[in-house]
Specification:
Order of helices and strands: HHEE
Number of domains: 1
Radius of gyration: 25 Å
Number of helices: 2
Helix content: 25-40%
Strand content: 5-15%
């Protein structure tokens, strides 16, 4: 059976080996410019009722329209859209403005 001291020593040696191995081979990878990324489309599929503004409305230049929209249900009832909380940032990102 391993003693507590042997266990701690072995754990420390293993962690030191892992840490030193990663720093020697780590390279900083730069992301390509968006035009050169090879990505043409991003498709977001959700199973919840979320609007464009919920998902991507925080992006600069996003042209989502929420104000003034009216939706009807199968019974003919009309529902206007309403603003989210004034401090809502979406996606937990900081406000890009």
């Amino acid at each position: 059976m391993l003693s507590r001291r042997e266990m701690l020593f072995g754990s420390a040696a293993g962690l030191a080996t892992l840490a030193s191995g990663r720093t020697g081979f780590a390279k900083k990878r730069l992301l390509p410019h968006p035009e050169n990324s090879g990505i043409k489309h991003v498709v977001v599929v959700t199973v919840e009722n979320r609007s464009f503004d919920h998902l991507l409305g925080w992006l600069p230049g996003a042209d989502g329209m929420q104000e003034g929209l009216i939706y009807g249900d199968s019974a003919g009832n009309q529902f206007e859209t309403y603003a989210l909380a004034p401090d809502y940032q979406g996606c937990l990102n900081v406000d890009p403005d």
